[in-house]
């Protein structure tokens, strides 16, 4: 459930009519609903309520806006981060350093040092050598880094190839069979406390089967490692739960996921850690856009909107579906293609879609744009960096400004040697 609903024929974010935001902030613009963020956070927490020891770390990569993080920090969420920049964001949003989990396949020594200086609670290791580097840095700082080893359970998550991570040919984690040797060699090394395992098999998952299979393999490995004398007190189960981009394709609910986790992890006796991203923020955001032209096409009309692939990359990158709706629908429908102004044929949001009839100047939204939306935006074609707004009841505020091309041009320099 979200709070983007029609009132008197006009689409609102909570109590704010979207035309008001378009008028005051301009388009394209991302709009987040605080009430929806809080609701999703609560639903996820409720789904895991029966688990005795747990930690929920929001995967910041899905939406790193500081205001969004602040809402989730207030709900008690920690953060799953993958770069020094994300560590800085989590801290800036008021998340406790000990609640931050540092994932990522290529943490640099500089990033590890920075994260240790901040007091980050856990590092999810991607390879043995990283563990030794982390231990060495920690020793030099007089610290001990808590860590888990990310294992690759070799399951097919059944999602888009570009967002699958748990097959053996993917770049993530170590083969699960190698975990024993790595624990033997790294466990007991000064500067590192290797305390468990982590896994994440992919994103936008609709089938809990592969997740349950992966968790089963991780559970068996926990037992094996304990049998070999290692102390295991935490397991990070990653993120991945899908969201309904298309209304008739509904993923398993957080409650059903929670039941599966209870079943799959019974008897593990560890702190279970979760890294949800999309399921928390996906439906808490929309991308508001204005129709520039309705261009008669050879086959069907092209609705040319002022949002483009640089603002919302998912359709171009993953052939992703985002529902399109008019902000003030007339009740009439049309079949059209929807595209942005960028000079690439791939800058297309929908082809041959049955949508609300729109005309030039009308406003529309792409739904489920709160996850992997603004954060993946660029300034391609020298377009502005898209702004973000948060709504709270009848109030709204710009939480990320539009960055004009002029500002970006000002950061570029023509070297002296070109000035002759
Ligand atoms: N934990 C790890 C280690 C991850 O790699 C990811 C996502 C998550 C948690 C959060 O997954 P979620 O709960 O959001 O599914 N840009 C793509 C998605 C990339 C996901 C990368 N990793 C998209 O727009 O679909």
Verbal overview:
- The protein has 420 residues and is of the alpha/beta class.
- The chain folds into two domains: 4-32 and 282-410, Beta Barrel (Lyase, Ornithine Decarboxylase, Chain A, domain 1), CATH 2.40.37.10; 104-274, Alpha-Beta Barrel (TIM Barrel).
- It has twelve helices and 21 strands.
- It has helices at 18-25, 34-47, 66-74, 84-92, 109-118, 128-140, 179-186, 208-227, 254-265, 278-281, 314-318, 405-410; strands at 4-7, 10-13, 16-17, 29-33, 54-59, 78-81, 100-102, 122-125, 145-152, 174-175, 192-198, 234-236, 271-274, 285-295, 302-305, 324-326, 333-339, 348-356, 363-366, 388-392, 395-400.
- The strands form three sheets. Strands 4, 14, 15, 16, 17, 18, 19, 20 and 21 form a nine-stranded mixed beta sheet that branches. An eight-stranded parallel beta barrel has the order 5-6-7-8-9-11-12-13, surrounded by four helices.
- Strand 14 and strand 15 (302-305) form a beta hairpin.
- The chain binds ligand LLP.
- Ligand LLP is lined by residues 59, 62, 80, 103, 163, 165, 200, 203-204, 238-241, 275-279, 314, 318, 372.
Write the topology of this structure.
Layout: E1 4-7, E2 10-13, E3 16-17, H1 18-25, E4 29-33, H2 34-47, E5 54-59, H3 66-74, E6 78-81, H4 84-92, E7 100-102, H5 109-118, E8 122-125, H6 128-140, E9 145-152, E10 174-175, H7 179-186, E11 192-198, H8 208-227, E12 234-236, H9 254-265, E13 271-274, H10 278-281, E14 285-295, E15 302-305, H11 314-318, E16 324-326, E17 333-339, E18 348-356, E19 363-366, E20 388-392, E21 395-400, H12 405-410
Bound molecules: ligand LLP.
């Amino acid at each position: 459930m979200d709070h983007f609903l029609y009132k008197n024929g006009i689409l609102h974010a909570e109590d704010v009519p979207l035309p008001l935001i378009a008028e005051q902030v301009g388009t394209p613009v991302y709009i987040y609903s605080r009430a929806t963020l809080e609701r999703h956070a609560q639903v996820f927490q409720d789904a895991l309520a029966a688990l005795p020891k747990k930690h929920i770390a929001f995967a910041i990569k899905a939406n790193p806006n500081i205001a969004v993080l602040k809402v989730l920090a207030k709900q008690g969420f920690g953060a799953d981060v993958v770069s020094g920049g994300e560590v800085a964001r989590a801290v800036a949003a008021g998340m406790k350093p000990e609640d931050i989990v540092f994932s990522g396949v290529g943490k640099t020594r500089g990033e590890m040092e920075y994260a240790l200086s901040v007091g980050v609670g856990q590092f999810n290791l991607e390879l043995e050598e990283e563990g030794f580097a982390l231990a060495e840095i920690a020793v030099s700082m007089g610290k001990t880094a808590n860590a888990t080893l990310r294992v690759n359970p070799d399951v097919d998550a059944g999602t888009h190839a570009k967002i699958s991570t748990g097959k053996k040919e993917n770049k993530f984690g170590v083969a699960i069979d190698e975990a024993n040797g790595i624990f033997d060699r790294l466990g007991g090394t000064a500067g590192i406390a290797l305390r468990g395992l982590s896994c994440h098999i992919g994103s936008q998952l609709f089938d809990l089967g592969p997740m349950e299979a992966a968790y089963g393999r991780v559970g068996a490995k926990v037992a094996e490692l304990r049998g070999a004398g290692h102390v295991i007190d935490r397991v990070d189960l990653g993120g991945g739960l899908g969201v309904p981009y298309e209304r008739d394709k509904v993923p398993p609910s957080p409650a059903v996921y929670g039941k599966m986790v209870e079943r799959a992890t019974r008897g593990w006796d560890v702190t279970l850690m979760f890294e949800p991203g999309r399921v928390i923020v996906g439906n808490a955001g929309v991308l508001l856009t204005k129709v520039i032209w309705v261009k008669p096409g050879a086959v069907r009309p092209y609705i040319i909107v002022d949002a483009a692939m640089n603002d919302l990359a998912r359709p171009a990158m993953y052939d992703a579906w985002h529902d399109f709706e008019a902000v003030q629908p007339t009740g009439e429908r049309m079949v059209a293609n929807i595209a942005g102004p960028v000079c690439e044929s791939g800058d297309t949001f929908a082809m041959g879609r049955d949508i609300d009839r729109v005309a030039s100047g009308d406003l529309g939204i792409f739904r489920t744009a709160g996850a992997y939306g603004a954060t993946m935006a660029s300034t391609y074609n020298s377009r502005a960096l898209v702004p973000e707004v948060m709504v709270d009841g009848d109030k709204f505020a710009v939480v990320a400004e539009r960055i004009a091309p002029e500002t970006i041009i000002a950061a570029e320099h023509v070297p002296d040697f070109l000035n002759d």
